[in-house]
């Protein structure tokens, strides 16, 4: 119907324009752990309430304690809000964006990604007080030929990136399940096919 309405627009050109439009959209593939963020948000609200209550007391020591607490509570709330806007994994313009640190997400060409699978990783408390614990994780396997992307420095608490494997700790992302892994692999195939189709249209 669209092609009939615009006769001058060929099927190839329309497909190319559609792909170009979709390429500008940031697509979330793996969300952060909203439950952990909610706990921090609740803590910041409690801290803010405590600061306001201290403001109302006449004793100078309580008043100034409230003055010190309020900026801390606001900063914490802002940090949590900004963190909710970030994705552990996102896709845009043929690039997988991996967010495992305080800095900007690390870009990886989608062609360099082979698959996703379930894994397990040591938790942050593993090894302390004689405790050995592991948590489910999302593992991204990169192609052997993509050597330049095999190793990156990331926050150890969020995951690891070594020897062509990116491990995202399940405690810091949305609930991990076989269904989630299947969804990631399905979307990976779709993205790679779309990118291949885009290259064919250009040719």
Please explain how this structure is put together.
The protein has 203 residues and is an alpha+beta fold. It folds into 2 domains: 2-28 and 88-202, no CATH class; 36-84. The protein contains 5 helices and 8 strands; from the N terminus they run ααβααβββββββα. The strands form 2 sheets. It has a 4-stranded antiparallel β-sheet, with no helix packed on it. It has a 4-stranded antiparallel β-sheet with strand order 5-6-8-7, with helices on one face. The protein starts with a helix and ends with a helix.
Would you summarize the structure shown here?
The protein has 5 helices and 8 strands; from the N terminus they run ααβααβββββββα.
Keywords:
alpha+beta; 8 strands; single chain; disordered N terminus; 5 helices; 203 residues
What's the SSE blueprint?
Layout: H1 2-5, H2 11-23, E1 27-30, H3 34-55, H4 60-84, E2 89-92, E3 95-98, E4 106-109, E5 113-122, E6 134-142, E7 159-162, E8 165-169, H5 178-202
Antiparallel strand pairs: 1-2, 2-3, 3-4, 5-6, 6-8, 7-8
